[in-house]
Amino acid sequence: MELKDDDKIKEIVQLNPFNEREYIKDKQSIMDIKIKTEKDEYIDIEVQINDVDNYKKRSLYYWSKLYGESLGKGDSYYELKKSIVINIVNFNIIEENDKYHNVFVIKEREENTLFLEDLEIHYIELEKFNVEKDINELNDLEEWIVFLKECNEKHDCEIIEKLSSRKEEIEMAVKIMNKLSADEIEYQKYLAREKYIMDEISKKKYAQYKMAQMKEQEENARKAEEEAKKALAEAEEKTLQAEEKRKVEEAKRKVAEEKRKAEEEKRKAEEAKRIAAEKKALQAEEELDNMKKTVALNLLDLLDDHTIAIQTGLSIEEVGQIRKGHKSQG
């Protein structure tokens, strides 16, 4: 971040190096300096000690304000000046790499072509800075970081004095930090409050967003629970219906079985009745035959075989057999 001759600081346009907690309850420590270079480019340097919600969008928003303010009333867009925002933060904000200094510009996504040089946003993350060098070996950016860390943490006056003696810009920064009139402080208090209000609005909206997200998650969980209960009830209903159907089918099966048994008993009874009738008929037939034979036997001495056969219904052969048996006995 070494400055060329035409990049040298021309004017401190706006400065706010003070601890906001002196003026606004429950704030973070901030230093905010607006600089105009010899090329009439604007640089906004902000030192942020504590993490702030949506800080990336916040810095882009303040860059847009800085860029818009570079255009005077009635000027053409050609007069818009390059605007640089340098965010020096005491927390990690760029999680994609371990570099303590990241620079963002507008480029074409695929070709990587620079769109305009007017936008430049720097993030210098003090927590990532871990360079152990002698003070005489530090480059320009490292000198500034050591200066800021000493101001914020150790307050080593000897190191700050050495840095001031080596670099005119750091000496100017020390003077700026020690120089503020009462009227200027009041003005900066107003600007700080304006920034604070924007931060608070962002926090509230973020909190509202998280609350809405939480409510949505709770509603989704409630709906999921209701769907699960409904599915369970439907499953239980289907189980009951299946059980009832099984019972009905079982009852039908039992009725069919009882009917089959009754029909079987009826068949057996009819079979027994038939057998008994056949037996009785056979017995009657045997008794009738015996009676015929007895009558024929008694008529043997009185009638001839043909007449006996006609009278008894026996065949002539049967009568002949009876007569033959009678003679053998005589």
Automatic annotation (TrEMBL):
InterPro entries: RpnA. Pfam families: PDDEXK_2. Transmembrane segments: none annotated. Residues 220-272 are annotated as: Disordered. This is PD-(D/E)XK nuclease family transposase. It comes from Clostridium butyricum.
